[in-house]
Amino acid sequence: QVQLVESGGGLVQAGGSLRLSCSASGRTFSSYAMGWFRQAVGKEREFVSHISRSSGATYYTDSVKGRFTISRDNAKNTVYLQMNSLKPEDTAVYYCAASYSSATYDNPLDYHSWGQGTQVTVSS
Prior knowledge:
By secondary structure, this protein is an all-beta fold. 0% of the residues lie in helices and 52% in strands.
């Protein structure tokens, strides 16, 4: 298990940017693939992005491609989600999560550790 803490959420106008961070403690961070998910009010948790253990592979849901960028710094035990050109429909609580594999990166059931979430609100 690994402990995860997200930060960087907030209120931003449409078209603005935010960078989310997720800091990890516990077992070796570089052993885990990492993902970002989000959950809007009244909706199910959905996959946003994933990065493999070595940063060799990244994945995005279609709605954020070209606007969001996931990255990680294994020396700092941190994964980031740079979010540009934000839209009101990006409003949600954003969660980072750790997985042992990138095989099914968009399935939340395959992630074993989750952060508490950080709220992102995009106003129109």
